[in-house]
Specification:
By secondary structure, the protein is an alpha/beta fold. The longest helix is centred in the middle third of the chain and has 21 residues. The strands form four sheets. An eight-stranded mixed barrel has the order 5-6-7-11-12-13-14-15, surrounded by six helices. The chain starts with a strand and ends in an 11-residue tail after the last strand. The structure holds 2-phosphoglycolic acid and zinc ion (ZN). The site of zinc ion (ZN) has 6 residues, from loops. 2-phosphoglycolic acid binds next to loops.
């Protein structure tokens, strides 16, 4: 049994230079193992609370020393001597110790760091790779119904995920004028993860050239490494992506499809969607749905994230009814990786996919619970990074272990992104046939 012997935490920095929590744990007979917590910028209201110091003397109050102290003190005291192999018990303990519904007391950053570090320490002590340990934890969750996806099914065995890769960044993540946050490519026709990455790299390079040739800045990038050009309209980004895919010798739609993360909450005020890049000025929910429907008609879009504000449940249901058969509709801010919110979304058919960010909910077990719930309902989980990231590659191992089928990491440059893409390359090589590639088939539904 991997008994926790020591837990330590320190403040380190993320890809935006913001302080974040790193936790180290050691189990009896094992070596120290660590996890680093990421940080979002376009955060949903329902997310676990990220505890920051708030005192303006140091780093404008952005420090996480209080969260670090919580790990070193209360959390370490509660976990030392416990079995790190029983992740559910560890995470229950963390939730009980915090005592709030959103980890507001100890901090979601403190709690997630501890939860993940314990999982890594258990893997070390048991002498198994993290992906294998995650796999065992995932398999302990009861599956409530047979998966409705074609074989190999989501959640049924390790899968190498289809990456959804940011090419053009806007919204809160870039200095340009685009309202929509991410314009992404999905290499749906690739025959392996490796090929998917090759194609994506090529499209990214061609897009840089296309931007330069049009007189746009093809070198400046946003927080996640996507280009951040000043375009006249959001829609222009879609045309440029189609052109870049063609310039890479690939077929738009068949080889490489498009996705968007609208992140609509961040330009929604007073019941309207306020678009600065003029695709229409202040849109109602229904005119936003009309706009997106026209785009789905005109461009090979297969995935739409956060198309409406995070509390318009009825609007989401209307949108999913209209577009859900043609594109996956992903709730990010809407669900905040929260099983309770996801349950409500499933009842209302408010989407058909959920973004899964461990730090939105705060423990590994609750992250798995959300994924299991989604798959059991015939929805797709997409494991996702945050805009503030680090060298921690946990989400790569998680996505493979749970058979999520898709991953969203940001763009294909910047080492905090490549830490995950490269880990997936290692896993592809190491796991061989035990980790299947279903690629773009993840977007087909076989449910009647
Ligand atoms: P965030 O962005 O990490 O800033 O929330 C990522 C996303 O919205 O998908
Ligand atoms: Zn999002």
């Amino acid at each position: 049994m991997p008994i926790i012997e020591r837990i330590h935490a320190r403040e380190v920095f993320d890809s935006r230079g913001w302080p974040t929590v790193e936790v180290e744990a050691v189990c009896r007979g094992g070596r120290p193992a660590r996890a680093i917590v990421p940080s979002g910028k376009s955060t949903g209201r329902a997310e676990a609370v990220e505890l920051r110091d708030g005192d303006s003397d140091r780093l404008d109050g952005s420090g996480v020393r209080r969260a670090v102290e919580n790990v070193r003190g209360e959390i370490a005291a509660a976990l030392i001597g416990n079995d790190a192999g029983d992740q559910q018990a560890i995470d229950r303990r963390l939730c009980d110790l915090d005592g709030t519904p959103n980890k507001a007391r100890l901090g979601g950053n403190a709690v997630l760091g501890a939860s993940l570090a314990c999982a890594y320490a258990a893997a070390e002590a048991l002498s198994v790779e993290p992906v294998e340990h995650f796999r065992r934890l995932w398999e302990r969750l009861p599956a409530r119904s047979p998966s409705s996806f074609e074989s190999p099914s989501l959640g049924g065995g390790p899968l190498l995920p289809l990456p959804m890769v940011n090419m053009i960044s806007g919204g809160l993540h870039a200095g340009g004028n685009l309202d929509f946050q991410d314009f992404l490519v999905l290499p749906v026709g690739a025959e392996s993860y490796r090929q998917a990455l090759d194609w994506t790299v090529l499209v990214y390079r061609r897009l840089g050239r296309v931007l330069d040739s049009r007189g746009y800045e093809g070198r400046l990038v946003g927080d996640e490494g996507g280009y951040g050009p000043k375009l006249a309209r959001n829609e222009e980004a879609l045309g440029l992506l189609v052109e870049a895919i063609g310039a890479a010798g690939l077929r738009p739609g068949e080889d490489v499809a498009l996705g968007i993360d609208v992140a609509a909450t961040h330009f929604h005020r007073d019941g309207r969607y306020h678009l600065a890049a003029t695709d229409g000025d202040a849109l109602t929910a229904d005119s936003m749905i009309d706009l997106l429907e026209r785009w789905v008609d005109e461009y090979p879009i297969r995935s739409i994230e956060d198309p409406l504000v995070e509390d318009d449940w009825e609007g989401w249901t209307r949108l999913t009814t209209r577009l859900g058969g043609r594109a996956q509709i992903i709730g990010d801010d809407l669900f905040a990786t929260n099983p309770e919110r996801l349950r409500r979304g499933i009842e209302l058919a408010a989407a058909n996919a959920v973004l899964v960010k461990p730090n939105q909910i705060g423990t590994l077990s609750e992250t798995f619970e959300t994924m299991r719930l989604a798959i059991d309902a015939g929805w797709r989980p997409i494991v996702s990074a945050r805009s503030g990231e680090t060298e921690d590659a946990t989400i790569a191992d998680l996505a493979v272990a749970a058979g999520a089928g898709q991953i969203k990491i940001g763009s294909i440059v910047r080492s905090e992104r490549l830490a995950k893409y490269n880990q997936l390359l290692r896993l592809e090589e190491r796991l061989g046939d035990t980790a299947a590639w279903i690629g773009g088939r993840v977007l087909h539904r076989t449910r009647d």
